[in-house]
Design goal:
alpha+beta; globular; five-stranded antiparallel sheet; 29% strand; 495 residues
């Protein structure tokens, strides 16, 4: 045996003299040099792993934080019918007989289909105990007057500085609805953050960021039976959440009576709505067949005041001018037009202005929130356009075409596919010149642009943002931005 081997054995015996060789507490004496050397290697490896804190890191990776908000329901496992054992009738010397197997249930039969309710729907949370009342703190927060809110007027540099203070954390990622988010909105109160979201099955979720009711501050309701594609809070002394759905119904909340009142009902799926008056009493509603209806909330019943046909193909979005309420912009098949409500008849005449240049279907079109001197359109040709509407001339000029700097072709990818809600660029209501939009790029992000095309902020978080936020919404007075994904979660970026 060499001298080096003898020294290694001596070191191993000295280092392992405090330990036993196995669970039976046998001494180290009598072990071969190979076994002693092996035990010394094990001790050195364990010391190295402890020094780099690998066991602690491994334990941290195994601990996955449970998502807040609505809890996922456990799938019910149905017991399948046990079929009889197959045997050879020929070997049994029996005549062949025909056995029909039971028909498998189709996927359509397994899905619970809810009929569209008519009239008021109880505002009873489905994620709380039966006959539970709305929390008193929600009623107080809901009725906070919007007129008490004062908007901060920042220049562009101050606005950019405020964006740097907006971040995401684990507590601000909450599952508000059970399925894909189709729409989202902030309550106008500034004291606390209260958000609403609608999903593809007609559910509406309310999330108080600082609340402790329901599931982590979330209350879930079921006022509709189809995707809730548009929602907004009325900016009146007593706020009301209005929700519009593919099921052909438009509803408004009455928290005092704890009901979703039915304001308008149609046999055709509805696509969007906007307030046609400053007191939010009159609405402009569009459907997927190209019609627009004027609805007065003060009139009893669910019938409209008038209905006009704009486009025989499709009508995806309508938005009313913030100052001159008689004008509205409509996102149609491959065009966007500005109409005058006063000239609408059963079949609408020619538009006041045309926003030309789109080559594919227009997903949305919105007036700028303060003056209405800009129109922001999102098109499936992978472009976001800003038009100058300071004057209503027959052909509205294009001011800019916005694209992210990471795209070398100057396009913003809009190909969301079947499983994601379509991207729509929306204005920040606190600004006349800034808007946000979701992104399909990796790492996942929500982007905020200036109307000239400059990227002001790319909201990213590798730990808490790993999915596409197709739906975005701004708070009307605070520095807060929400993004909704296809699993029903809202991501809140706030200061």
């Amino acid at each position: 045996m060499s001298t080096e081997t003898d020294e290694a054995i001596t070191v191993a015996v000295d280092n392992l003299s405090k330990y036993d060789c196995d669970r039976k507490n046998k001494p180290l004496q009598g072990l071969s040099p190979y076994e002693l050397k092996r035990l010394e290697n094990i001790r050195q490896n364990q010391a190295f792993l402890t020094a780099i804190e690998l066991p602690q890191a491994n334990a941290a990776l195994k601990r996955k934080p449970s998502p807040g908000g609505i809890k996922r329901e456990k799938a019910k496992v149905s017991k399948q019918e046990v079929l009889p054992l197959r045997k050879s009738l020929r070997l049994l010397k029996k005549d062949a007989e025909i056995r029909l197997l039971p028909e498998p249930q189709s996927s359509l039969q397994q899905v619970e289909v809810r009929e569209r309710p008519e009239g008021p729907v109880s505002m009873a949370p489905v994620n709380m105990e039966e006959d539970s009342l709305l929390p008193a703190s929600l009623l107080e927060l809901w009725n906070e007057r919007f007129t008490m809110v004062t908007k901060k007027k920042w220049n562009l540099k101050e606005y950019e500085a405020s964006l740097k203070g907006m971040g995401l954390s684990e507590e601000r990622v909450v599952k508000v609805v059970k399925e894909r988010v189709y729409s989202a909105a902030f309550h106008p109160c500034a004291r606390r953050l209260l958000l609403a979201a609608g999903d593809r099955s007609g559910r509406v979720g309310l999330w108080d960021v600082e609340g402790d009711w329901g599931d982590d501050g979330v209350l879930l309701f079921e006022p509709h039976t189809g995707p809730v594609c548009c929602m907004a809070f009325s900016n009146t002394q007593t706020s009301s959440l209005l929700t519009l759905s593919y099921d052909g119904s438009l509803r408004g909340t009455d928290v005092e009576r704890a009901v979703f009142d039915e304001l308008y009902r149609s046999d055709v799926g509805l696509s969007s709505f906007d307030f046609l008056s400053h007191d939010c009493s009159t609405l402009l509603v569009s459907d997927w067949d190209g019609d627009v209806a004027i609805v007065d909330r003060r009139t009893p019943g669910t019938s409209p005041e008038s209905v006009s046909t704009l486009d025989p193909k499709i009508l995806r979005c309508v938005h009313v001018h913030p100052v001159q309420k008689q004008y509205f912009v409509a996102a149609q098949n491959r065009e966007a037009h500005i109409y005058d409500v006063r000239s609408l008849r059963r079949k609408a005449g020619p538009p006041v202005s045309t926003l030309a240049g789109h080559t594919l279907s227009v997903s949305s079109a919105y007036f700028s929130p303060i003056t209405g001197n800009r129109v922001l359109t999102t098109c499936m040709d992978d472009r976001i356009r800003v038009f100058d509407t300071s004057e209503f001339i027959p052909q509205i000029p294009l001011q800019s075409s916005v694209s992210p700097p990471c795209c070398p072709l100057g396009r913003h990818n809009m190909k969301t596919g079947r499983w994601l809600t379509k991207l729509r660029a929306v204005w920040d209501p606190k600004r006349e010149d800034c808007f946000s939009v979701g992104s399909l790029e990796r790492p996942r992000r929500v982007e905020l642009f200036h109307e000239g095309g400059r990227l002001l902020r790319s909201f990213r978080d590798g730990e808490h943002l790993s999915t596409v936020c197709s739906v975005t919404a701004f708070h009307p007075s605070r520095s807060a931005l929400a993004g909704g994904n296809s699993s029903g979660r809202l991501h809140l970026f706030a200061g």
